[in-house]
Amino acid sequence: MRVWTRIAALSFGGPAGQIAVMHRILVDEKKWIGEERFLHALNYCMLLPGPEAQQLAAYIGWLLHKTKGGLVAGALFVLPGFLAILALSYIYVLLGHAPLIEGFFFGLKAAVLAVVVQAVVRVGSRVLKNNVMRGIAAAAFVSIFFLDAPFPLIVLIAALAGYIGGRSGLTAFKGGGGHGSAAGNVVHDRDTALGEGLPDHARPNLAWSLKISGALLLLWLAPVIVLLALLGPDDVFTRIATFFSQMAIVTFGGAYAVLAYVAQEAVGTYGWLRPGEMLDGLGLAETTPGPLIMVVQFVGFLAAFRDATGLPPLVAATLGAILTTWVTFLPCFLWIFAGAPFVERLRGNRALSAALTAITAAVVGVILNLALWFAIHTLFGDVREVRIVGAGFEMPVLASLNLPALILAAGAALAVFRFKAGMIPVLFACAGVGAAYVLLT
């Protein structure tokens, strides 16, 4: 518990940074698990919907200390970020209109825009190795930006294309390496506490998998069913439970892909928050430990705060945040405990690897859409919808350009791309500059 608490407290910077922290502590420092097994677990987690870093923590915790180890590792990975974002959400709704807080979030938006653009470049450079992958990314971008296609459909089509391409043996669909791991001497499985052999509890056991899956499925869906029965489908808590449960199933491709889907639905469909507030939530998630997907907690908090259905707003908001976190992260344990004992059968499966590669390529297009969407709403005060052949997309009014926001975003991009500055220093520096600007003007 001490080690997993330490990992959770240091887990800033998105999945790549979080996985690097786990690798450094669990493989290099503690030697609890070897390089080969760590990377195999990571490859499996990347095939799953949801945050791969949190699922990797649950997987390794389960491998080392059975079910209780997986629960402790996975829960502790989420808990610090949940508490931090909950506290910051209170500040946001209570003091958000104070000049200091407004300036803080003004600067944070500009920095977040640079971070999202960096994510496009980072993921794109890793996966867009040939024209087929670039074509998938371009098609995904056109589909979601211009045609307003739903994110789950884009993932499904990309996965099918990749699976078929992998089965056909096409070299364009051969995957490459995930997030990677730290350089240096390789720690082999034989030299670790776990050893080379497979623990007895990690061997395939259909009875155990069905039992644990049934329990987790009940814990996940029981609140959704109760809310539907008692409050009906139109209540804000029911909508939060059903929407984020659906999201937990279909959101492949990492946190930024999840953000694109949540922004599309929470802002455009449900009207739970405004585009600028989505950026605020991402800024909170970027500056707190834990999975970046914790931004959904902020969305659920605001949705319930503004539609309290008879409860005090802060009580409703707190319940909304807890409900969102519950239905988002509980399925992660289901995927791990149900599938982990059978993972060895996935090792070297070319078709599944190709499907993941195609999904990741599509995600580049989705993240590009997210970056453009954030840029439009950060840098321009007036945005208008353009409709072509029944589909609509947003275009900025050029005269409404916010010059201070553009200068701050350009400075953040320069720091990130030219000077290779760390994400956390850039976020805090921009927040400080934004606060000073608002207070002085």
Task: Characterise the protein shown here.
The chain has helices at 2-9, 14-29, 35-46, 52-95, 99-127, 131-145, 151-167, 206-231, 236-250, 255-269, 275-286, 295-306, 313-339, 350-379, 403-418, 423-440; strands at residues 383-388, 391-396. By secondary structure, the chain is mostly helical. It has one domain (2-173, 205-437). It has a two-stranded antiparallel sheet. The longest helix has 44 residues, at 52-95. The chain is globular. It starts with a helix and ends with a helix.
Low-confidence runs: none
The structural class is mainly alpha
Q: Note the total helix count.
A: 16
Give the overall form.
globular
Distance N to C terminus: 48 Å
Roughly what is the average pLDDT, rounded to an integer?
Answer: 86
Query: Assembly type of the shown chains?
Result: single chain
List its salient traits:
two-stranded antiparallel ribbon, 71% helix, globular
Give a brief rundown of this model.
The protein is mainly alpha-helical and 441 residues long.
Write the layout of secondary structure elements.
Elements: H1 2-9, H2 14-29, H3 35-46, H4 52-95, H5 99-127, H6 131-145, H7 151-167, H8 206-231, H9 236-250, H10 255-269, H11 275-286, H12 295-306, H13 313-339, H14 350-379, E1 383-388, E2 391-396, H15 403-418, H16 423-440
Antiparallel strand pairs: 1-2
Helix pairs in contact: 1-4, 2-4, 3-4, 4-12, 4-13, 5-11, 5-14, 5-15, 5-16, 6-14, 7-14, 8-9, 8-13, 9-12, 9-13, 10-14, 11-12, 12-13, 15-16
Protein name: Chromate efflux transporter
InterPro entries: Chr_Tranpt_l_chain, Chromate_transpt
Subcellular location: Cell membrane
